[in-house]
Specification:
Distance between the termini: 30 Å
Largest sheet: 9 strands, mixed
Oligomer: single chain
Number of helices: 2
Shape: globular
Number of strands: 9
Order of helices and strands: EEEHEEEHEEE
Helix content: 10-25%
Length: 131
């Protein structure tokens, strides 16, 4: 896990966190996930040399409350937003837990409307659908 990296983007430097949960993920915290420029900014970060040569998935994360986040994901390969991404949800929850002191399980709302929970230990993380 790499935290608080400053990455130069066309709109100015952005703080990005990254880790690999089976595939590489960049995690950005945003004040409002509905207003996040997922397609435009996601495409720029996905192909940024900082994450080269294969690029990264990009997760836009809004903190909704204690141990509760919302995630929108730009996926490489799809080259656009998807309704949910299990490895992205896990990456976002792990970064949020580390940075914001969240305790498991972390509840995660995805663009498709579902709510997932991520529980983690020292070396593993698990994901389950709520409801």
């Amino acid at each position: 896990m790499r935290l608080n990296e400053q990455v130069a983007l066309s709109g100015g430097p952005q703080t990005i966190h990254s880790l690999n949960t089976g595939v590489p993920h960049a995690v950005l915290f945003v004040p409002d996930a509905d207003r996040a420029m997922v397609q435009q900014l996601g495409a720029e970060i996905r192909r940024h040399p900082h994450f080269g040569p294969k690029g990264t998935n990009v997760n836009f994360v809004q903190q909704l409350g204690p141990s509760h986040i919302r995630v929108r994901t730009f996926e490489r390969g799809v080259e656009g937003e998807t309704l949910a991404c299990g490895t992205g949800v896990t990456a976002a929850a792990l970064v949020a837990a580390r940075l914001h002191g969240f305790t498991p399980p972390v509840r995660v709302q995805v663009q498709g409307g579902e709510e997932l929970e991520v529980s983690s230990g020292r070396t593993t993380a698990s994901l389950r659908m709520c409801g």
